[in-house]
Amino acid sequence: MKKIKNVANMNYLWLLLGSYFIVVLFNLLRYSTEALFLKLGEVGIVGTIIGVVISYPFLWFIGEYKKLIDIGVLNTFLTALILFVAILKSPTLFLSLGLIMVSVALFLFFYLDKIRFAIVFPVLVVLSFPKLLLQASGNFQDEALKIHSFNIAESKFTSLIWPILTSVVIALLIGLIISRLAVDRISKVWVKRLTLITCIIGVCYVLYLSVVVYYKVKANSGSTFDIGIFSQMFERMKTDFTQITTLERDKALSHFAVHISPIFYAILPFYMLFPYVETLEILQILIVFSAVIPLGLVLKKLQLPKLLNPLVIALFFVTPAMTTSGSYHIHENCFLPPLILWLFYAIISQWRLRTILFALLILFVKEDSFIYVLSLGLYFVFQNRFSISPRFKKWLYASTFFLPVIYFGFAMFLLTKYGEGAMVSRYSHLLMSGENGLLMVMKNTFLNPLYVLGSLFTAKKLGYIFLVLFPLGFLPLVQRRLSTYFLMLPLLAINLLTDWLYQYDINFQYSYGSVTLLFIMGLLALDQLSNYNVIGEKALVALVASSLVISGGILYSYTHKWNFEMKYYHDRKDYFEGIQSVLKDLPIESSVVTTGSYTPSLRQHEKLYDIYYHNDKKVDLNIDYVVVPRETRQEGKGFFEADILKAYEASGYKESFFSTEDVLVLEK
Length: 668
Description:
61% of the residues lie in helices and 3% in strands. By secondary structure, it is mainly α.
C-alpha cells in the first residue's frame, strides 16, 4: 500500500490525468451539446485511447523533460477550462449550477491550501453568469432535454421554500447573536450540562418517533415494500431461521437471492421475544440513533472547541435523512449510520480485531455496502490527519481493501449464480443497447464523463444534493485534502449515478450510509478549520448553530404530519381493531392475496401475495382467500382491485363469512 501511495503521488499519474483532461476538453469543443450531455456512446473508446496516447508524451516533454510547466498547475487550469466550456455548452440551468458547485468546492480546496491560482475558479463562475441568466429564462419542461426536463409544479419546491427561508432567517439571527457572545469563556461544567440536555432531548425525540411508528403500524399505513416483506421474513426466520418470503418477488424466495443481508440476524432475538411488526419499526429508530454513541467518542478524539460537541450531537439528531430515510419502514440500511461511525472510530483508535469486526458487520448489511468500507479505506490511506502505526496499517488494508473486495466479488457470484443477479438495471442510462454488467457501466463512465456529469446534475438530483448538504452547512465541501473526498464515493455511486429515482430521495433508505459519511466529512471540515485557525471559535459555533436551525426546519417540513396516525387511530379504533380481527381469523396455513397495507398483519402466512403484483393481476386458482378493503370493490372509484375482484368472482370465488362491513374476503 505504501508503494501505491507513493506511485499515486508521482507526476506520471498526474501526466496521465492531464492527458485524459485534454481528451475531454477536445471532445467538449468537437461535439454538440446533445452528443455530449444527452446521448451515451458518441465518444468511442478508440478515439479516447488515441487521444491519451498522443497527449501523454507531449505533456511529459513540457512538464517532466523541459520543466516548462508544473503538471499539477496545468491540470488545475485544464479542470477550470473544462468546467467553463461545459457550462457554456450545458443544456440546462441545473447542470450549470451543478458545475458551478464543483467549481466552488475546488476553489475552497485550493484556497484553504493557500494556492494562489485558486482565483481561477471564481473567475470562471463570474464569466459564466450571462449563460446562467439565459438558461434561467428557458423552458425547463422541454422534452428534448430528456432527463434534464423539469416541472417545478411536480416538485417539493413550493412546500419546502418557506420553511427553509424561515429557518435561514432564524439561523442568521442566531449566528449574529452568538458572534457577540463570549463563547470561549463558557466553562466545562456548562458544556457538560448542555451536552446532557442535548442527549435528553435526543432521547425524547427517539421516543416520540417510536410512538409515531407504533401508531403507523396500528393504523395499517404500512405497505408490502418494505415492511410487508421484512415482517414476513422475520416471521419465517423466527420459525426456521431462513429469510424466505413470497412477497418480495411474488414467489417463495430467500431474501438472500435479492440482497445478501445476514445483518438481520442481529435483531432476530428481539423479534423472537416481541414478535410484532412494531418491534421492527422501533428497532430501526433505536439502531439509527445509537450512532450518537460512536459519534460522541469520535468527537473526543477530534478535540473540537468544547461548545461544538453538544451542537454536533444535536445536529446529528435533526439531520433530516437520519429520520426521513425510515419513511417507508424498516430496511437493512438502517444499520449503516452506527456501524460506519464505529468503524471510523475503530480505525482512528487503531483497534485491530474490532476494525475487522465492524468492517464485516457493514459488509453483512448488503452486498453493495462494500463501497462504504472501501471509501473509508481510501480516505485513511491517503490522509495525514490521523497517525496510523505501521503495524496497524496491515489490519487497515486487510479490513478496508482486501475484505470488502473479496466479499463483494463473492456476493456477486452468489447473486448471479443462485439469485436474482446484481441490480445493474438501476444504471441502465449508463448502458448502451446490448450491454449489461458493472464493467460496462464503468467503461461508459470513463468514456463519457460529460454525459455522466450531466446525469449527476439533473434538477431532482441537484435538489437531493441540496437537501443532504445544506443541513450540514455545506461543510462536507470545505476540505483541505483531496483524500477526504473519497468519503463521497457512496454518494456518487449509490445515490447520484443511478436513474432509480428512490435512491436520490431522502424519504428512502438509500441515504443512510452516504449521509453518515457526509456527516463525517463535516466533522473533518470543522476539525481542519479549527486546527488551522481558518476561522475563529465564535464563527464555528455560529456556523454549526445555524446549520442546526436550518436542518431542523427542513426536518420539520418533511415530518410535521407524521403524527397524523396517532389521532387517526384513536378516532377510528373500532375500525382498525375490526380489520385486525378479520385478518387474525384467517387460517394460518391458507394462501392469501391481499392489499399492500394488510401484508404486515398477515405475515404469518407462508403463502402471502400482494394483489397489485401477484400473477400480473390475473386470477390464481391456487389462492384460498382474496382479502381487500370492501371499498375497493366499487367500480368507477379508481381502485385497480375492482377488476381483479370481478375476475376472481367470475372464476367461482364467493364472499366468505370472514367478511365484515369494512373488509371483503373472497374464498373458493
